[in-house]
TrEMBL record:
Organism: Cebus imitator
Keyword check for RNA-binding: yes
Protein name (record): Piwi like RNA-mediated gene silencing 3
Predominant location category: cytoplasm
Chain ranges of the PAZ domain: 288-401
Alphabetized UniProt keyword annotations: Cytoplasm, Developmental protein, Differentiation, Meiosis, RNA-binding, RNA-mediated gene silencing, Spermatogenesis, Translation regulation
Annotated signal peptide: none
Keyword Nucleotide-binding: no
Protein family membership: Belongs to the argonaute family. Piwi subfamily.
One CC-aspect GO term: cytoplasm
Any one GO biological process: cell differentiation
Disordered: annotated span: 1-71
GO molecular function term, any single one: RNA binding
Amino acid sequence: MTGRARTTARGRARRREQEEQEAPGVPRAPESAAVSEPAQWQRTPRSLRGEGPVVRPRQPRGAEVAAQSRGVKEPGLEAGLKTLSLQERIGGVFQDLVVNTRRDMMHVKNSKTGSEGEAVQLITNHFRVISHPQRVAFKYNVDYKPDVEAGNLRQILLNQHIRKFGECHIFDGNSLLLPQPLREQKVEWVSITEDKKIVKIVVEFSKELKPTSPDCLRFYNILFRKTLKELNLKQIGRHYYTEKIPLTLERRGTRLEIWRGYVTSILQYENGITLCADVNHKLLRIETVHDFISKIQARAYPGNAQQEVANKLIGSIVLTKYNNRTYRVDGIDWNQNPDDTFNKSDGTKITYIDYYKQQHKEIITVMQQPLLISQGRWKKGQTDTQREPILLIPQLCYMTGLTDEIRKDYTSMKHLAEKTKLSPEKRHNSLKGFMKTQALLRLWDFKLDSNLLSLQGRVLSNANIFQGRRMVQANASGEWAREVREIPLLCPVPLHSWLLLYSRHCRTQAMNLAEHLQHVTAPMGITMSPASMIEVDGHPDSYTNTLRKYTRSALQMVRIPCFLVFKVICVLPNDDKNRYDHIKKYLCTTFPIPSQCVVKRTIEKVQARTIITKIAQQMNCKMGGALWKVETNVQRTMFIGIDCFHDIVRRQESIAGFVASTNAELTKWYSQCVIQATGEELVNELQTCLKAALDVWCENESSMPRSIIVYRDGVGDGQLQALLDREAKPMWTYLQTISPNNFALAFIVVKKRINTRFFLKRGNYFENPRPGTVIDVELTRNEWYDFFIVSQSVSEGTVTPTHYNVIYDTIGLRPDTVQRLTYCLCHMYYNLPGTIRVPAPCHYAHKLAYLVGQSIRQKPNRSLSTLLFYL
C-alpha cells in the first residue's frame, strides 16, 4: 500500500486554523475525508496505541481552502521554501490500522500454510531488521507560529536548535521523536529565516512510544529515507533517484532520460520487521511544456491549435525541476500569461515573472505562453473536496512519460524495456549494492541484515485443461497454444450472418481477413458463412450510419435473437479513439451486437495468420461460445470478479465491473456495470448484481450454487474494514434472505500493485520463479489469511507476484484449496492460451469496466450481459 493511501486511510490531514490562498506552483495537502467508525461486523480490531498521551495530540496539519478562480495571494513567510505537502513532509509512510480478519476463521486459526506442491527455496527483495531500538522513545508535537507549510523549511528552522535535542532524532515535519526526553514538557524556540523573519517553534510532549508500538514503524521509514540521501540519491516526488548517470535515449525527435532509483517500506510481517526495497524508474522527457505546446501548434490546423494542445496535454504529468515536484495538468488558462499579476497576502500585487524570480531564482523569458492549471493530486474518496488551483508556467515545467509516437514504435519500446525491465539477476545485484550505508540507522541501534531474505515456496502443478476431447497441461512457461493447435474448441458457435466493414484504404486487408477467417475457423469447429462486405468512407459517422442501415435490415430478416447469429467486424485505418468509441457505443447500447474492431496495421504483420486465429477465437467467445475449461474439483460454486475503473484524466464517473460464472464448468458468464460517483471504489449495488447472476445460473443449472467465491480487485489495505461493511456483509445478508444456511461465501482481496519480488536461485544465478509458485510464510501477516502466487511467466524483466487476502470465509476454504482454486482460475482467461496474473473473473471485470469507462460511458444493453462482448 502506498504512503499516500495510508495517509488517506488514517485521516491525517487537518484543516488549517486560518484559510488563505496558495502561491502559484505550490500545492495544498489534500483534506482528509471524515473518518467514521463503522459498525464492526467482526470483532473490533486491536488498538494500535496502548500508550496514553500525556497531552492531547495535535490534529495533523494541511487542510485545503476553497478554490478560487483567479490569482493567488503571496503567502509571505509561508512561501519561504514552501514546496512539499504534508505527505512528503512526514515521509509518506504510515502503519495501517490492521484489521484482524483471520481470528474468526477457525479453520485457519492455528495455521494458514499449505502443503501441496514441490518445495523450492526463494530469495526475496526484503532485508530483515535484525536490531531496532529496545528502549522507550519520546514523541513531541511541533508547531510553528506563524504556520510553515514547506517540509524542508520546517526542518531547516528546527535544526537551528539541534544542540538542544541532539543529532539522534527523527522529525516527520509534524512530530519529533527523541531517544531521551527534553527537560521540560513544553518549550518554545525562536528561529530566523533567510529573509530575517522570525518564527516561533513550540515543542510539546505528546507520549512515550514503546519499542513494540506500531507507530514506531512510521518513524523507522522516515529514518531510512534519510539514509537514501547518503547514497547521493535525488528526491523527485516521493522517491529517490540516481542523479549521476541518467540513461539517455533519443527516438522520433524526443530526447528521454531514465532515472533509476529505489522505493522502500518497512513493515511488520509474520516473523518480524523487514525492509522491502525495489528498483524504480522515472522517465523524463528533455523538453519543456512550452516546447511541447509549440510543437503541437505548428502541426495543428488553423483555429484548432488550442483544442489539440488540450487533448494532448490535459491529464499528463509534468515535473518542475525548481522543487522536484510532479503535477497533473487539469486545464490550460489561455487568458493569462506570466506577465499577469496576482495578489500577495499583504494586498499588493506581483507578476508571475517576479514571483518565480524571487522565490525560485527562475527567469521566465517567454511572455506569450498560457498558464497550466493543476487541481492537486486526485484521490479516491476525496473527489468532493475543493482544492486551490495551482498555476504553473509551461517554460518551467518538463514533460514526463512517453509520447504516443514512442509507444507505437516497436524499436523504441524494446530499447526502453532493455533499460527498465531488469532481469532477476540484475535486480538482485542492484539491491545488494543498495545496503551500503547505515550510519544514521546505527544512531538508533537500528540494523538491517546485509543479505536478502531467504524463504521457502511451493510450486503447484498446472491445471488440467480440456479442449474438444483432449486434456492438456500448460508447459513450463504456463502456455498451451501449441498443445491445442488444430483441436476443435470446447463449444464452437456457428457464424451464419455477419458484416465486415472497411474503409477504402483497407480493402486489401479486409479481403485477406475474410479469406484467412475461412481457413482458421474450420479446424476450430466453427462453421462460417461468407461475410457481407461493405465499404465505408472511414470517418466515425460513416461506420455508424452504415451499421444503422444494415442492422435494421437484419432485425427484419432474422427471426431468432439476432446476436446469436449476427456479428460485426470493422477494419479501421488507424487506432483513432473517437472512431472506435463511436462504433462500440452504438453496438453496445443502441443496437447490441457482438463486434470486433481490427486496426489495419495489425493484420498487415508477418504473423497475420496467428493474429487472425486469435480474432476468430474472440469472435466465438463474444457470441457465447467457449474455448476450453479447467478442472477445479469443486461443485456448485459461483466465482465472481469485481473491479473498478476510475477516469483520472477526465475525472468523470467511476465504473464498477461485476462478472460472475453462471455454470459449473465456468464457461458461461454474466456481466453487469454499476456507474457511481467519481473516485468511488466501494460498490453499493452488489445485491442487484448478485440477484441477476443467480437468476442466470438457475437458467443454466438445475440447482442454485452452494458456494460463492468473490475476487475483489482494486482495494487498498486501509479499506478492508469498509469493504467488509459495505460489500461483503450486504452480499452475505442478501444470500441469507434467499435461503438461510444454504449458501457459503468467501471474499478475497486481490492486490497487484506490490513491490515484493521473488527470485529462484540456480547455481550462482537468479531467475524468475515458475508459474504456480506459492508463498504463504514469512512475508504474510499474522492478522490476515493471505498468500502470494506467481501465476504467469514473463519474457523480459522480473515477474511480479499477486497478493491475495481472504478477508471473509464461511466456506471453510483450506489453504491448499484456495491456493489451487486461485491458480486454476488464472488459466481461464479466453484472450490468452496461458496463465495470467489474476483470476479470470477479476480480469474480465477489469476489461468490462475499462471498456465502459473509456468508450461507452453508459451501461451496455442487457441483452449482452451473458456474452463476453468486452474481450
